[in-house]
Amino acid sequence: MEENGQLDQLLHMKKTTHATTREHASRDLETFPPPMASSRVAVIGAGAAGLVAARELRREGHSPVVFERAAGVGGTWRYDDAASADPLGAGGVHGSLYASLRTNLPRESMGFLDFPFVADEGSVDPRRFPGHQEVLRYLEAFARRFDLLGLVRLETEVVSVRRRVDGAGAGVAGWTVSYCSRKLAGGELQEEEQSEVFDAVVVCNGHFAEPRLAEIAGIDGWPGKQLHSHSYRVPDQFHGQVVVVIGYHPSGMDISRDIAGVAKEVHVAIRSAPCGMQSTTAHANLWLHPMIECAEEDGSVVFQDGSRVKADSVVHCTGYKYRFPFLEEDGMVSVDDNRVGPLYKHVFPPQMAPHISFIGLPFKSILFPVFRLQSNWVAGALSGRIELPSPEEMMLDVMAFYSDMEARGWPKRFTHNLGVEAWTFEYEDWLAEQCGLDKMEEWRRVIYVAARARVSVRLESYRDEWDDDQLLAQAHNDLSKYL
Ligand SMILES: Cc1cc2nc3c(=O)[nH]c(=O)nc-3n(C[C@H](O)[C@H](O)[C@H](O)COP(=O)(O)OP(=O)(O)OC[C@H]3O[C@@H](n4cnc5c(N)ncnc54)[C@H](O)[C@@H]3O)c2cc1C
After folding, report:
1. What is the 295 CA–ligand 1 centroid distance (Å)?
2. Closest Cα to residue 201, out of 75, 327, 69, 337?
3. Omega before 342 cis (within 30°)?
4. What CATH number should be reported for the domain holding residue 65?
5. Which of 78, 105, 202, 205 to mutate to test the pocket of ligand 1 (most atoms within 8 A of CB)?
6. Which of 318, 351, 379 is the last residue of a domain?
7. Are the C-beta atoms of residues 205 and 358 closer than 8 Å to each other?
């Protein structure tokens, strides 16, 4: 939705605050029931966000039901081979992990605040930046430790979420959640669609499943193969090839190195690269370039500085799109250039708060603790323990945030990027204050900031060499009270 549309919403809210007609009923917050000590809540997704949401909701006295379309919990951290048959990721596979993936944060700062992510006797990978299997093990342990598995309905995909108008047409009486579950019956896999009514909905469906591709002039006539990082698993298919990788965020950095181990040459196109081909120190066959100008029918890929290579494959490490296919398209929440909005503090659509909320949209922060704070905020707002501003005030805050972004020249796609400025942890601290919880520990912040800084100066070794042992000892000391 465009900003003008959001302004219209604000004006509309002002006009209809006291509306009683059926036409206005579903647009007026006051027609939702008042906060309830215990709400029945549908949580969509059982990744890190959905699991911690379920925990916080139940702690608050609510009754969450978690819908998860996969066969297990863990979301992104469930390694899934299947995507390799689907080069540009159009097949609906959720997982985006490659086989060699290790975390890009040190484990002690990455974990939930009161459930430390530390190596123990059950660890499958005790390293400080462990492989993905260890993160899945951790999330499964989290679910077991807080007895969440019984709340999760596996192999059950939410297909639609609709507001319900009550019998008299005077107000909104919760949400109808329709879902499709897969069951084995008589040796055959059967799908069954059903609907249930909930007081509230918490959306935790993740945002690393819908690939965003780079637009390349001439790519349709270019004869090589293309792949998105969503579908990349292992480098074998690139043996002896000349490969162009687009993008140099964490996945691009890892995948280009993975491929350089078997390919003849790897050329990485980077938005911020200086002109001219740059070699990298640790890999003699890996070069950095500016972005791609065009691709040609003879197999050439031409970069913006005029340099060119004849390439066999292009790998798009160009990120993902937010997507909510199960939400009704009535303009209340929409996605515009990866801005999900309007949302108050990345969580609540002002007109429907707190009855529908989004957990897990931000990126570039210490995400698991952020998800926990967002979840506590939602749970508290639903029960009435935490008071939200009026819908008008929330919308004004959203508009002010958008104006501020525009004034700074930030594109819309940075809306949910918490790391866009200095590492101030302003959002995280604000959430903690709303919830009446302790702020994130100082050691966690410093370790995180130092780890991010090491990536740019020691890309090849940042996961295995560090110089913050003192902070690490402090972290372990602090976390030991939860072990
Ligand atoms: C390659 C990669 C590397 C990463 N590395 C790190 C890292 O090192 N450290 C870090 O902290 N973070 C990392 N992240 C970020 C990671 O996404 C978060 O850590 C976190 O796991 C996101 O959790 P989530 O619950 O929001 O989403 P997800 O983990 O994606 O979970 C969403 C869940 O919702 C389910 N779902 C979706 N739609 C429906 C539906 N309609 N009905 C039912 N279920 C549905 C999905 O099946 C999935 O299980 C990485 C991400 C990627 C892609």
Report:
1. 33
2. 327
3. yes
4. 3.50.50.60
5. 205
6. 318
7. no
CA separation for the pair 13, 15 (Å, rounded): 5
Single residue among 272, 294, 318 that ends a domain in this structure: 318
Please choose, from the candidates 347, 350, 337, the residue with its C-alpha nearest in 3D space to the C-alpha of residue 389: 350
Residues framing ligand 1 (Cβ under 6 A): 44-50, 67-70, 75-77, 94, 96-97, 101, 103-105, 110, 157-158, 204-206, 208, 251, 326, 360, 367-368
> Do 20 and 106 reside in the same domain of the chain?
yes
**Mean pLDDT, range 462-475, rounded to an integer:** 93
pTM, entire model? 0.92
Let me know whether 135 and 99 are in one domain.
yes
* Token code pair at residue 371: 């998800």
Q: Which residue in 343, 395, 345, 344 sits closest to 10, CA to CA?
A: 395
Instruction: Indicate if 293 and 361 belong to the same structural domain.
Output: no
Asked if 115 and 201 sit in the same domain, the reply is: yes
Judge if 97 and 109 occupy the same domain: yes
CA of 131 to the centre of ligand 1 (A): 15
pLDDT at residue 460, rounded to an integer: 86
Residues β-bridged to residue 70: none
pLDDT in tens, 388-422: 999 999 999 999 999 999 999 999 999 999 987 65
For residue 198, how far is its CA from the centre of ligand 1 (angstroms)?
24
Mean pLDDT of the chain: 89
> Which structural domain, as residue segments, surrounds residue 304?
214-318
Single-letter code of the amino acid located at 47: G
What number does the ligand 1 atom closest to the CA of 209 have?
A: 30
In the chain, what are the helix, strand and coil shares in percent, each to the nearest 5? 35, 20, 45
Total domain count, the chain: 2
- The number of residues making up the chain comes to 483
Determine the distance separating the centroid of ligand 1 and the alpha carbon of 476, expressed in angstroms: 26
